[in-house]
Amino acid sequence: MTISRRAFLHAGGLAMVSFGADPLFLDRAAYALGDLRRGIAGRKTLVCLFQRGAVDGLSMIVPAGDRWYWQERQRIALPKEQLISLDGMFALHPRLAPLKPLWDRNALAIVHAVGSPSTTRSHFDAQDYLESGTPDRKSTPDGWANRYCSHAREHTETPFRAVAFGPQLPRTLAGSAPALAIDDLRTFGMRAARAEGEQRLTRAFESLYEGAATGLVASSSAEGFEAIRMLKAADPTARPPANGAVYPRGKLGTSMQQIAQLIKADLGMQVAFADVGGWDTHVNQGADQGQLATRLDELGGSLGAFTTDLGEKMRDVVVVTMSEFGRTVKENGTGGTDHGHGTAMMILGGDVRGGKVYGRWPTLAPEARYEGRDLAVTSDFRTVLSEILTGHLGSADIASIFPGFTPEQRLGIFG
Amino acid sequence: MTRHLTLALCLVLAAPSVAPGQAPISPRDSARHVLNRLGYGASPGEVDAIAREGVRPWIDRQLAVRSPGDPALASRERGYEVLQTSARDMVAMHTDQIAKALKAQTGAADSMQRMQAQRALREQRSAGGKKELRDLNAELASVTLLRAVDSGHQLAEVLADFWTNHFNVFIGKGFDRAYFADHLEHTIRPNIFARFEDLLLATARSPAMLFYLDNVESVADGTDLMAMAAAERGRRAPVNARGLAGRGNRPAMARGGQTAGRRVDPALMDKIQQRMPKGINENYARELMELHTLGVDGGYTQADVGNVARILTGWGMDRRSNFEFRFSSAVHDRGAKTVLGVEFPAGHGEDEGVRLLKLLAAQPATLHHISSELCARFVADDPPDGCIDDAVRAWKQSNGDLREVMRAIIYSPDFWAAANIQSKVKTPLEFVVSAVRAVAGEPDSTPRLAQQLTRLGEPLFQMTTPNGYPEAQTDWVNSGALLARMNFAVALAAGRLPGVRVDLDRVLPLATSHEALVDAVNANVLGGGMSPRTRETILRELADIANPRDARALAVGLALGGPEFQRQ
Q1: Which of A21, A23, A376, B86 sits at 20 to 30 Å (Cα–Cα) from A287?
Q2: Band of the pLDDT at B263, cuts 50, 70, 90?
Q3: Which of residues 274-313 of B touch A (CB under 8 A)?
Q4: Preceding amide of B16 cis, omega within 30
Q5: pLDDT at B128
Q6: Cβ neighbours of A217 in B, within 8 Å
Q7: DSSP B401
Q8: Using a CB-CB distance cutoff of 8 angstroms, which residues of chain A are in contact with residue B537?
Q9: Residue of A201, A219, A225, A297 to mutate, testing the B interface (most B Cβ within 10 Å of its Cβ)
Q10: What contacts B112, CB < 8 A, 6 or more positions away?
């Protein structure tokens, strides 16, 4: 695995560029970047937002037309007058208001009662299954997005093909295909007092790791040094938000802004990933105010700013939200909700056929619930991801990305 | 057991020795291995000292520790106010802060004014020179790093980290800001060598845990806390000014918005009523089985989760006086329950919980789950079956004595297998502490070193989810993380890292040649683990550096940031 990864990296267009004291370095890196950009023109990007902690899908996309919603949630149901109606049956949480314009111009699709066939209510197992793309199989070594990158390798390679924003590489992107983890673009790279110090350290560490590192340490460091070179030449963080977009303060806003910067820099990013936590609302989750509303505020604001910032470029970008499972239909004894089953996903941008809530609504009636308590799952998350992979990224190899998955009836999110 | 002891003896006492079918491990390699795995890496000279004495006496001293605190550190620990502050005082600080923040906010017309008011409040507090809760908790992270770096009880510190992480509590969740220090000092640390059952019971009674996993909010279905509060007031003051309390079952406050003669805003009362727990919350019950004991495949069902939650209703704390554990029978579910097929007859109150925790602590699934985690931490990311078996056997023989379980792991052949030496990648905590130890750095009492750990992705006590930080290299190794480690190492070696004093003169006298320098770095900083390729590369990079101090700083920075030092 290590050898093929290294060899693969060096087969890429940038491997010829030497680095260090060479004064021509930047020119040459820029030249290579030009080559790369010609190779990847029109490449599309998928942005995955993982709502870790199990978002209450029934608060995010409210089934306002289902009487059980009102009946079972005396304390946490949203005030009717604040709901943003979508289609008569479903409504957006008021804090997701920035998404309403997208819905109105058919750029936002929603899948409800979606989830995994696994029955687990463990956060950690459910996240693992969602990320590996193989429910109930823990031995899968890699993540579904990494398998996409492995199977759809292209001639012109770039370390930015798959990028996760955060200090750790999520399971979704882990595997044999190269993937970067970047906590913050602005501080990615070697830090030294002077530029030549920076170059010396980069060169020294690169050869140290080439010489003595093994396994994951070797491949990860090689990708890191490759990325440093490209960032130097492309300087994506110099780009301010466009079209008056204002990102919310905080980790998600920063990550979304930097994802937009990498997209605009044309570094060939196909899969971007960001985590957004704080959804495990067991106690006092609130309705239009409170902890869940605060999280949705950040989510809505970040997505709104991102689409505004990218403007026309959103045609080449799809954002999908996902979470390990939903939460109980009935509020619990402490004004919150416990671990449930089905939830909702949002898909926006690209050629999505938006303005529609997809999936069969099983209703919240007690007899229709999963194990008598949770929203049933009527659409497999892999169906949604498959349609994005084929409809947006043009992948043909779904069977190897989701092994063992027998596709169900298409939802038609991309036609 | 005899087989293992003999094997271990021949491994560690004879030098060099050969385990069956394995390459010999030199005394220096053995010393470096125990320092890496049972401690936070070697300080200058330590590998040689342990190699000379033999690793066994060192291991036995580490295992013989009675309490985790190293008396040699006691006077420096006294400089940390957090260790002298009671949970009760910290709760008072927390409620005081909330009250002040609320007061500052009322009357503020918009968010701008609110922010200004909050800033003014902060400045006012810091001007007073009094430590805030946040400063005390920052101290807790600092003193934890100090202990990891400087304690002679290295294994105890590693285990304190292991169990703190196993029973993870997020220090930033509401009242856990006030309870966490007590949790670390009085629930986890004194019990690292206790019986597992006692450690588990201590965590189940820890206010920090009860609050973090919401058990304090979990009450028998149908409980009406407002009515209960009213009834209690009625008992204490049978006739109050308006004669409302204590009559009938309906809550006095909900009726008239009046209590003890004081008028309370009915809207506020409504809000309070809304937020009052009315039934069970299964958060703790699930994580207790999934993470703390049985493991996710430990054979429990959703019905078990619900019943465990019912058994543990009433496990909370005294929120009036000392903020210690208190069982409240008034909110306890009085029905009969069944968990894992074992019946818990109705009406046994707190004893049901104790019985339940003892039951969970003794389940074979628990023994296997915890032993696997320990072997993953101390032996290999993918824990070898032999190590797990040895640990489980010792667990059964000793009734879950964690000291004996640790002894079995250390003397398990898997611990000494060549394939498991230098096979694990350090976590950010292990990397930071071992790097500081390698250059005999002295952490200062500011939060700055702990903030470095935050940059590397492992802020102490701030993992928000109950699974704690991961152990395997796949979770920690990635391009960005490695670059951050390189930057840390260079800054540390150059003496530029905030929060730690480094004096390389004490570790590496200035050398006469670059070759001598790199050899000294290998011997004193890497404990002899430098590969020929690394030596060659460092020498090449030093070639054009004339200033011996600059050369030394660069050589140490490259060694600590290089690939060998990432492993243990």
Answers
A1: A376
A2: low
A3: 274-275, 277-283, 286, 290, 296, 302, 305
A4: yes
A5: 60
A6: 425, 473, 477, 482, 563, 566-567
A7: B
A8: 204, 207-208, 211
A9: A201
A10: none
Give the pLDDT confidence score for residue B92 in this predicted structure.
92
**Shortest CA distance to A164 belongs to which of A307, A67, A257, A47?**
A47
Collapsed DSSP state (helix, strand, coil) of residue B528: coil
**What torsion, rounded to 10 degrees, do the Cα atoms A344, A349, A355, A359 define?**
-40
Q: Does B273 touch chain A (CB under 8 A)?
A: no
Q: Are the beta carbons of A114 and A342 closer than 8 angstroms? A: yes
Q: Do B277 and A334 touch (CB under 8 A)?
A: yes
Quote helix, strand, coil % in chain A, to nearest 5. 40, 15, 45
Taking the C-alpha atoms of residue B503 and residue B516, their distance in angstroms, rounded to an integer, is 19
Give the Cα separation of B483 and A222 in Å (integer): 11
Query: Is the Cβ of B99 closer than 8 Å to some Cβ of chain A?
Result: no
Q: For the beta carbon of residue A370, count every other beta carbon within 10 angstroms.
A: 18
Q: Which tokens belong to A209?
A: 């790791």
Percent of chain A with pLDDT over 90: 72
Closest CA to B461 of B158, B164, B149, B69: B164
Q: Which residues of A touch B566 (CB under 8 A)?
A: 217
Only one residue has tokens 């797990």, namely B388
CB < 8 Å to B483, chain A: 188-190, 224, 228
Does the distance separating the beta carbons of A228 and B558 come in below 8 Å? no
Opening angle at CA B102, ends B99 and B107, nearest 5: 140
pTM over 0.90: no
Longest Cα–Cα distance of chain B, Å, equals 92
Report the distance separating Cα A190 and Cα A205, nearest Å.
10
Tell me the two tokens of residue A288: 């239009």
Pick from A390, A166, A116, A400: which is nearest to B475 by CA? A166
- Torsion (CA) B186, B188, B193, B199 in degrees, nearest 10: 100
Q: Between residues 449 and 488 of chain B, which touch chain A (CB distance below 8 Å)?
A: 455-457, 464-465, 467, 473-484, 486-487
Nearest chain B residue to A20 by CA: give it: B541
List the single residue in B278, B281, B302 with the smallest CB-CB distance to A371. B302
Segments in B78-132 forming alpha helices (H): 87-105, 111-127
Which tens digit of pLDDT belongs to each residue from B282-316?
A: 999 999 999 999 999 999 999 999 999 999 999 99
Dihedral sign for Cα atoms in the order B141, B143, B149, B152: negative
Cβ distance A293 to A95 under 8 Å? yes
Least confident of A227-236, B272-281, B325-334, B477-486: B272-281
Structure ipTM: 0.85
Q: Do B558 and A183 touch (CB under 8 A)?
A: no
Tell me the C-alpha to C-alpha distance, in Å, between residue B431 and each of A92, A135, B513: 46, 34, 29
Tens-place pLDDT, residues A259-318: 999 999 999 999 999 999 999 999 999 999 999 999 999 999 999 999 999 999 999 999
**What does the alpha-carbon distance between residue B133 and residue B353 come to, in Å, rounded to a whole number?**
32
A50 touches A323 (CB < 8 A): yes
Tokens 């390189």 belong to residue: B486
Cβ neighbours of A125 in B, within 8 Å: 296
**Cα–Cα distance measured from residue B74 to residue B494, given in angstroms and rounded to the nearest whole number:** 30
Distance, in Å, from the CA atom of A219 to the CA atom of A174, rounded to the nearest integer, reads 12
Phi and psi at residue A386, to the nearest 5°:
-60, -45
Q: Which of A11, A9, A30, A77 is nearest to A285 (CA)?
A: A77
- Counts of helices then strands in chain A (DSSP H, E): 13, 12
Q: How many CB pairs under 8 A join A and B?
A: 166
Q: Are B522 and B47 in contact (CB under 8 A)?
A: no
Q: In this model, does residue B237 exceed pLDDT 70?
A: no
